[in-house]
Amino acid sequence: MASNVRGADSAAHDSTSAGGWVVFAAVLMIFVGFMTLFQGIAAIAKDDVFVSTRNYVYQFSLTGWGWVHLILGIVMVLAGFALFKGALWARMVGVALAGLGMIANFMWLPYYPFWALLLIAIDVIVIWALCAAPRYREIQ
């Protein structure tokens, strides 16, 4: 009886489907990816919308950061959709991209501080959810 229960429980968690935390991280990553993509479009299309803080420690071209955000947003959306498969490689790529998103939004602080801090916090949640989710294995 114990092997029967174990087999039924293991069959519900095969490696081809994503667990709850991974799905949660995937949805958040797709959201952050789209928001990053829209930030990039706004910075490229009309960069006078953003006001740069004077005397900031670092200053970069807003249009250049727009292209970085556009490309990063597209890759984050694609990685978010890949997370629905539950593959380990997708989780590792998701953690790396969320880390890059945190760095990009930190550099975005002079242009849009509140929004950048919000996206940094969501990236932290995505990393936590991807690292905290258990790894399911197929029973042979």
Summarize the structure.
This protein is mainly alpha-helical and 140 residues long.
List keywords for this structure.
140 residues, mainly alpha, 5 helices, elongated, disordered N terminus
Describe this structure in words.
It contains five helices and no strands. By secondary structure, the chain is mostly helical. The longest helix is centred in the N-terminal third of the chain and has 26 residues, at 20-45. 71% of the residues lie in helices and 0% in strands. Residues 3-16 have low confidence and may be disordered.
Which helices and strands, and how do they pair?
Layout: H1 2-12, H2 20-45, H3 62-83, H4 88-107, H5 113-132
Helix pairs in contact: 2-3, 2-4, 2-5, 3-4, 4-5
Ends distance: 19 Å
Whole-number mean pLDDT: 79
SSE string: HHHHH
Alpha plus pi helix count: 5
The structure class reads mainly alpha
How large, in whole angstroms, is the Cα Rg? 19 Å
Portion in helices: over 70%
